[in-house]
Amino acid sequence: MTLAAILSVLGNLILSYFSQQISQDIGMTDAQYGMLTGYAYFLVQGVAMVLQGYAIDFYSLNRVYVVGFGGVLGAGALLMQGFAKDFNVMLIGMLFSALGSSVFAVLPIPILSDILPPEQISFGGAIFGSNPYLAEFLAGNLAELCLKKGISWRWAVVGLGTACGASSLAIFAFLREPPIGRFIVKRAGDRLSYGSLGLGRLIPLACYGAICQRYYTKLPTISLYTTAIGACIAAACVAISILSRVIAGDVSNRGYAIGLTAMTLTFVIGEGWQGPLSVMITLALPPEIRSFAISLFFAVAQLIGPAGSVLFGIYLTIGDWVKGTPSYVTPARIYMLVALMGGYIGSAIIYILAVPAVNRDMEKRAEAVRAGGYPEVCAFCILCTRVVAPPHII
């Protein structure tokens, strides 16, 4: 699944390195290129994530088959883009690519929570969670290799599509749908449950995961607090990054170094929520709505994130500022400070406010388990609650 996810993401990322060649081959404008790789892609992907999550839970679909089919669909989309002769075919390929890659965004997380032993969830999740970073790393190096060797962008995309298809077929061949049922309740001394909270990406896994594992029994909502604290620190790093040139006294090299360092810290610290928090949510949810709820959570996050750049463009367009002029710099800085810092700080406040609700939910779950059942939430209405026999509890 990790390999298929890397290849699926890589197929979209590598297009940005061949924008000039693609524009020349199929006569694509900058606006059309932005449609292929910009917000439209994430919008389609986000909607697809929610729909597939709902369908999986409501119709009890085989999640492994859904992942495999999505990988095959994404592979076909890459082949379509590689052999495209005009923009319309590229656009259709982009739509299918977004649909196919949506299965890798969140669905493997609930699969891993059921297929792996509790003591291995952290390691397996870290491997899968690293796929966007590995794809970003490989995209630039692969594009550079293709340019040096004179390999056409078409063959690069076709090759990725073929590899993605092969790895997706391997999912059908070697993986089986695991029993659904593991979830987490508040139980003191259970080290296996909070050990699984380390699911995430490489550096955030080491930082946030270690803290959450150490203090989980004393504070089950620790990942909400660490996420909020990380967001506040990231907000400060954002301010440093935006004002790096001012801090450096208009010395370009020094300002670039300060900005790059602050941006790196923002990314590492601010993205930590995708590790411990996502796993806490996954294991805390009833199995009957797990895929849909996780898909909805990540879809909303994915749609809100890229929206900042869209609003940024609208803001600068309305202001009629000319890019590169002194009058452009000040409003751009103000917007980025307000939007980015406000986003991080606002999310921190929301996470802190959510702690009492999460505690109440965990107490209800614990009471239901002690009574011999657990609350099951209807896929149509979260107000519909009934008690059934408990599944395996971490």
From TrEMBL:
Membrane-traversing stretches: 32-51, 63-83, 89-109, 121-143, 155-175, 222-243, 293-322, 334-354
Domain of life per record: Eukaryota
Keywords (A to Z) from UniProt: Membrane, Transmembrane, Transmembrane helix
Protein's UniProt keywords contain Ribonucleoprotein: no
Molecular function per GO: transmembrane transporter activity
Record flagged with keyword Lipid biosynthesis: no
Gene3D superfamilies reported for this sequence: MFS general substrate transporter like domains
Protein name: MFS general substrate transporter
Organism: Coccomyxa subellipsoidea (strain C-169)
